[in-house]
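input
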Amino acid sequence: MTALATPPKEDPEASLAPLRSEYPFDSHFLDLPGARLHYVDEGPRRNEAVLFLHGNPTWSFAWRHAIRALSPVHRCVAPDHVGCGLSSKREDYPHHLAQHVANIEALVAHLGLERLTLVLHDWGGAIGMGFARRHPEQVARLVFLNTAAFPSERMPFRIALCRVPVFGRLAVRRLNAFARAATYMAVERPLTSLAKRGYLLPYRDFASRVGVSAFVEDIPMTPDHPSRHELEAIAAALPSFRDRPALVLWGLRDWCFTPAFLDEWRRILPDAQVRTFMDAGHYLFEDEREAVVLELERFLTPTEG
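output
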């Protein structure tokens, strides 16, 4: 697999110019079977890195503040999952949890990364811990932000609506309702117009929203769902990471990943450091961006003695 110097034609990288003050990173691309994966790779070139994994309907843009703050000292790698951001968007791609995990495996191998701090949000929790389950020896630290990596019986009504046949496809693909709504429903403090533009930029038309819709469909609520077995295997492996330093950062006003998910993380990883934010929502990295960066810097700094 090789990194490619120029972006694929279907990617909207040419329209990144207005975002450069917010997202000033070089683009890199990795050829995968049936797709191209876009990723950011900033900071010193070493085999240890902070690997940021986003959720739905975001992309590596979500990590821009953390990358800019940490990259002078730490190598920061942030991919866009296939179907998201500047990565390929194809109708015939297998948009399932196990495939996304395999894509991260391929990226880590391609970059020669051997020691990782995983920073995980939303779907990034399941994808990142799927990688960790398969490669525990490469995972040094864990950071969780409003995410899950275990089955849940609860699906918010607003998300369930997006899975209703015909209506869901119309709302998510035709009207961009999922990504557009997230720019105000996932935050407690209004996004700037530039930040809102950044989140919506990759999802400009019906074709480019295929990944957003696929992630919604891939939530494994039933035992026979194609991703259920993978998620259950990931959940079973979580207690084996109790010996790793872990940090949980949580926006308590998240209507999707509610405090009940935080309680489950406390049960699974009882020694994890936990910091909650009373007035932050799902996009914690927007509502409390300075605090999140400070917590990451602290967590990544070795302590004396």
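quick obs: Residues 1-11, 160-164 have pLDDT under 50 and may be disordered.
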